[in-house]
Amino acid sequence: MTARLDVDLEKQLPGFDLQVRWTAGDGIAVLFGPSGAGKSLTLACLAGLVRPDAGRIVVDGRVLFDAATGVDLPPQRRRVGYVFQGYALFPHLSVADNIGFGLRDRPRAERTRRVAEVVERLGLGGLEARRPAELSGGQRQRVALGRALAIDPALLLLDEPLSALDLPLRRALRDELRATLADLRMAAVVVTHDFTEAYRLGDRIVVYDRGRVVQTAPRSELLWQPASEAVARIMAIPNVLRGTVVKATPDRIQLRWRGQLLEAVNSPARAYLPAPDTPLAFFIRPEYVRLIRKDRGLADPSHHMNVMHGTVVEEADFGTTWLLRLRLDEPGAPAQGAYDLEVEVPHLVYEILEIDRDRHWEFSIHRGSIHVLPG
Amino acid sequence: MTAESLSALSLSIRVAVFATALNALIGIPLAYVLARRQFLGKTAVDLLVTLPLVLPPTVTGFYLIVLLGRRGWLGGPLYEATGWSITFTWYAAVVAATVMALPLLVRTARAAIESVDRDLERAAHTLGRSEWRAALEVTLPLARNGIIAGLVLAFARALGEFGATLMLAGNIPGRTATVPLSIYTAVQTGESGEALGLVATLTVLSCVVLVVAGRLGARAT
Question: What is the value of ipTM here, to two decimals?
Answer without folding.
Answer: 0.82
